[in-house]
Specification:
Blueprint: H1 14-19, H2 51-63, H3 67-80, H4 85-97, H5 101-110, H6 118-131, H7 135-142, H8 149-166, H9 169-177, H10 185-200, H11 203-215, H12 217-220, H13 224-240, H14 244-257, H15 262-272, H16 284-302, H17 309-326, H18 330-342, H19 346-354, H20 363-376, H21 380-393, H22 398-410, H23 414-428, H24 437-449, H25 453-466, H26 471-483, H27 488-501, H28 506-518, H29 522-535, H30 540-552, H31 556-568, H32 576-585, E1 629-632, H33 639-647, H34 653-659, E2 675-678
Helix pairs in contact: 2-3, 3-4, 4-5, 5-6, 6-7, 6-8, 7-8, 8-9, 8-10, 8-16, 9-10, 10-11, 10-13, 10-16, 11-13, 13-14, 14-15, 16-17, 17-18, 18-19, 19-20, 20-21, 20-22, 21-22, 22-23, 23-24, 24-25, 25-26, 26-27, 26-28, 27-28, 28-29, 29-30, 30-31, 31-32, 33-34
């Protein structure tokens, strides 16, 4: 989890969720209707009466993360083939993933000699041994002399908590504090040693170890969730010792590390009010859970950009679900909610966010995420009411406006989105902070979608004033300028800078390539668009763009291949017929230099989830005209965007020139108020 991973309000980890909330900017203008739920077909797992039927249905449930159904079906399969090891392995994993730890341990005991699941079975059996005070069994299981440094650290720290459970506090603290290994061990061993000491009442040792953890920001940045736990633990022991100022100093260190971290803000208010918080980790179970939480959170963070993130998330889920089974902590539930979102499982995300207690500092963020996930399940009206209520509950909290704005953006309700961000700017007040950049950025997007560039541009500039090197803003504003044939050098340099800042972001690289395309620099466009497709495979828009560029440089067979690939990748419904037309007919011939208009205003998306360039040469509005008509030129209009918006295809600008002969000499010069004849829209 990177602190500034800016997907649409869904960031995958607790700290990311609490710090940065950017929203998706889409290209379409009309709000979609809420999806109508299909008639549900109820599957009765108890009705399955064959091995093959049970195993096939179990695998489907497993792949859908429906672990309760998977467990039932795997057990049905085992009734027919009780010695089937593979089925029992999946049963054990499904039990753990479903939070049914005690049942999973029973299966782990059966599979104790199975190398395929040795890691999971060993950890689970060892934890169970410590819980049941069978320390010898636990320590025998946790002995490790293999090459995996992570496994060695996890085993050693869990064993240290076992020693704490036996009453061997000094040995337990030493086992954690003296653990030898690579540099990245430091934040884990120091926190664990401090937590053991604090739980035993050794405040001096706890203070020293937590302070060492908080001081090591470099290693802490690789385990951000654990680092923030250390900050709050240090503040807690100082508050309990009567050192209010030292407690506030610890919180200040955390605020420097993670500005606007909501639980820390609530924690500060609590201590400033003279309330003394309780230690978060006081028992053996909570201690072992903290080890699993630390490792699960750090793995989730490191796997943010992993190529096989979905399968890697199963490993993260095991650690975090097991941690939650031992200690149902709010930050663990939020992490698990983020994981479910990453797997596009909104129902599971809602379940996890609902677990956060009403009095938890994390309840606010859980409520906002819950509202967004309601929308993802198709419950649009319920999501809207939920998010409106969340804003009303705390009208000074920017996160509520950002969450609601995100929802409105997804619904293409840009007018209401603009009003919401207007209110958010009022909350920001006259002195904006760097962290407020996204409020102005999203307000700019709302006004740009409403075709109010005179209101949009100042917001983009304000966002850059607050955060000069923010790649999304650089990309969006730079492309908009290029597309409107204004500030060309500055705009193109902005996009290049965005690419320099995020060279592996396929969408931003695509934006640079498409800017080159719109400027007629087709060879340059091919270079960048090829790289964009390599970086972000399986995106219909990027393949469509590359097809257009290939066609313009004469690589027509490759162009058709890219367009066909775009069709296979299921583009937006309105785009598919336009791409199919290009496959049949190719792109229209380029006009002569005298006729060719330069770039024009078009939509541009600018975040991690959607392409950072407009839709392609197809573009964008459905064709609605039934005959010739007239159009009054507005500020910012160009022939391309008039053709695109009113005729359904920017390439039809030459037809406008044919109907308006006076444009042939200077097709790039349009005056506000000028009347143009428009051709009929094609059926």
């Amino acid at each position: 989890m990177a602190f500034l991973n800016t997907g649409r309000f869904r960031l995958g980890t607790a700290i990311g969720l609490l710090l940065v909330m950017s929203v998706t900017a889409r290209a379409e203008d009309k709000a979609p209707e809420a999806p109508k739920p299909a008639a549900a077909t109820v599957f009765d797992a108890a009705s399955v009466d064959t091995f093959s039927g049970a195993i096939l249905a179990a695998r489907t449930a497993d792949n859908d993360y429906d672990y309760d159904t998977a467990v039932q079906l795997y057990r049905t399969a085992l009734r027919y083939e009780p010695d089937n090891i593979e089925v029992r392995e999946r049963l054990m994993v499904s039990l753990f993933m479903g939070g049914r730890f005690d049942e999973g341990v029973k299966e782990a005991d059966i599979l104790k000699d199975d190398p395929a699941v040795a890691r999971i079975a060993t950890i689970a059996r060892a934890i169970d041994g410590i819980r049941t005070k069978d320390y010898k069994k636990a320590y025998d299981l946790l002995k490790y002399d293999g090459p995996n440094e992570l496994d060695r650290m996890v085993n050693s720290l869990i064993a240290a908590w076992g020693q704490f459970g036996e009453g061997k506090v000094k040995e337990a603290v030493a086992a954690a504090a003296d653990l030898e290994g690579p540099d990245w061990y430091a934040v884990f061993r120091n926190y664990s040693a401090g937590a053991i000491a604090a739980a035993a009442g050794d405040i001096d040792t706890a203070r020293r170890k937590f302070s060492e953890t908080v001081a090591d920001r470099e290693q802490g940045s690789a385990a951000s969730d654990l680092y923030m736990r250390a900050v709050m633990a240090l503040a807690t022991i100082e508050a309990k010792a009567g050192n209010k100022q030292k407690a506030l100093d610890a919180i200040s260190a955390g605020e420097t590390f993670a500005p606007n971290y909501m639980p820390l803000q609530a924690f500060r208010k609590q201590i400033e009010a003279g309330k003394v918080p309780e230690l978060a980790v006081k028992t053996v179970e909570q201690g072992m859970a903290s080890v699993l939480f630390a490792v699960g959170g750090a793995l989730n963070q490191s796997l943010t950009n992993a190529p096989d993130r979905q399968s890697a998330q199963d490993i993260v889920s095991f650690y975090l679900v097991t941690s939650y089974a031992l200690d149902p902590a709010a930050d663990t539930a939020v992490l698990l909610g983020g994981l479910a979102e990453g797997l596009e499982q909104p129902e599971r995300a809602i379940k996890w966010y609902s677990q956060v207690a009403p009095d938890s500092p994390l309840r606010r963020i859980a409520e906002l995420q819950l509202g967004l996930n309601l929308a993802n399940t198709g419950k649009i009206a319920e999501a809207k009411a939920h998010l409106e209520s969340a804003v009303a509950a705390d009208p000074k909290d920017l996160r509520g406006y950002i969450a609601y704005g995100s929802f409105l953006s997804d619904q293409k309700n840009y007018a209401e989105m603009a009003k919401v961000y207007d209110k958010a700017v009022e909350v920001v007040g006259p002195i904006a902070k760097r962290t407020d950049w996204s409020v102005f950025f999203q307000r700019g997007i709302a006004y740009e979608r409403l075709k109010k560039w005179d209101l949009a541009e100042p917001n983009f500039k304000k966002a850059l004033e607050l955060f000069p090197d923010q790649p999304q803003v650089l990309n969006y504003l730079g492309y908009s300028w290029v597309d409107m044939n204004m500030n060309l050098d500055e705009g193109l340099n902005m996009i290049r800078k965005a690419v320099d800042l995020r060279p592996d972001d396929g969408y931003i690289v695509d934006s640079l390539g498409w800017a080159y395309f719109r400027l007629g620099r087709f060879d340059d466009a091919v270079v960048e668009l090829e790289r964009a497709v390599e970086l972000k495979a399986a995106d219909a828009t990027l393949n469509d763009h590359l097809g257009d560029a290939y066609w313009r440089v004469g690589r027509k067979l490759e162009a058709i291949f890219q367009w066909r690939t775009a069709i296979e990748l299921k583009p937006e419904p309105g785009e598919q017929p336009k791409i199919e037309k290009k496959i049949r007919e190719g792109l229209p011939e380029l006009p002569t230099k005298a006729e060719a208009p330069k770039a024009s205003t078009t939509e541009v998306a600018g975040n991690d989830k959607v392409p950072a360039a407009p839709q392609s040469a197809n573009d964008m509005e459905d064709e609605t005209a039934t005959g010739q008509s007239e159009h009054t030129v507005a500020k910012g209009d160009s022939l391309w965007n008039i053709a695109r918006d009113l005729l359904g295809d920017g390439q039809r600008y030459h037809e406008i020139i044919d109907l308006n002969p006076g444009l042939k000499r200077n097709p790039d010069i349009l005056q506000p108020g000028q009347m143009l004849k428009l051709p009929a829209a094609k059926p």
